Amino acid sequence: MSVMIGNFQLAQGAVLAPMAGVTDAPFRLLCAEQGAALTVTEMISAKGVLCAPTGNRALRDLLHTLPGSGPTALQLFGSEPDVMAQAALRLLDGSAFCLLDLNMGCPAPKIVREGAGSALMREPALAARIVEVVARVSPVPVTVKMRLGWDAASRNGLAFALAMQEAGAAAITVHGRTRDQFYAGEADWGAIAEIKTALRIPVLGNGDIAAGEQAVDRLAQTATDGVMIGRGAMGNPWVFAEVNRALSGLPAENISWKERGATAARHLRLMVDWKGEGIAIPEMRKHISWYTKGLPGAAKLRAAINRMETMQEMLDCLEEICRGDH
Question: I want to staple 168 with a disulfide (CB 3.0 to 4.6 A). Which of 40, 127, 135, 313 is the partner?
Answer without folding.
Answer: 135
